[in-house]
Design brief:
single chain, 143 residues, alpha+beta, Aminopeptidase, 4-stranded antiparallel β-sheet, 3-stranded antiparallel β-sheet, 4 helices, globular, GNAT superfamily N-acetyltransferase, Acetyltransferase_Butenolide, GNAT_dom, acyltransferase activity, transferring groups other than amino-acyl groups, transferase
């Protein structure tokens, strides 16, 4: 996969929101978590947000937490998710972080574990939008 990972710009916000809402992982029982949610230009400007040139994937590192990570459905299984995680860990190390916290979407937990995260607990539901427990994981950065 030759997609370049670059710092997102505020003008990318609409495309990142569209990618996020197109994710089949958030249809059905998990759809409420994204209802009305948008990646805004202000969010992109304020945080470490990285995307690919064709908006096939992106992530957001907010302080010591991986806040968002999405890969287009048709790009899953190509290694792009792994590349985004590796890039995120490089950014975290560069920021002096020794660990990155992830509150995972339940179906994504296996992916994070394959990428080297360790499960450390569970995040409680936060009704009305989140009515299910979510795995809490951490990545060590090697810093």
């Amino acid at each position: 996969m030759s997609e370049t990972i670059r710092r997102a710009e505020p003008r990318d916000a609409g495309a990142l929101t569209a990618l996020m809402h197109a994710s089949s992982a958030y249809h059905g029982e998990y759809s409420t978590i994204l209802e009305g949610y948008q990646v805004t230009a202000g969010y992109v400007a304020a945080h470490l947000v990285f995307t690919t040139d064709a908006h096939l994937g992106f992530y957001a590192l907010v302080e010591d937490e991986l806040d968002l990570l999405f890969v287009a459905d048709h790009s899953q299984g190509t290694g792009l998710g792994r590349r985004l995680i590796e890039h995120m860990l490089e950014q975290a190390r560069g920021a002096g972080l020794t660990r990155v916290r992830v509150i995972s979407h339940p179906p994504a937990e296996a992916f994070y574990l394959r990428m080297g995260a360790q499960r450390v607990g569970t995040s409680s539901p936060k009704p009305p939008r989140i009515t299910w427990e979510r795995p809490e994981l951490t990545f060590g950065t090697g810093a």
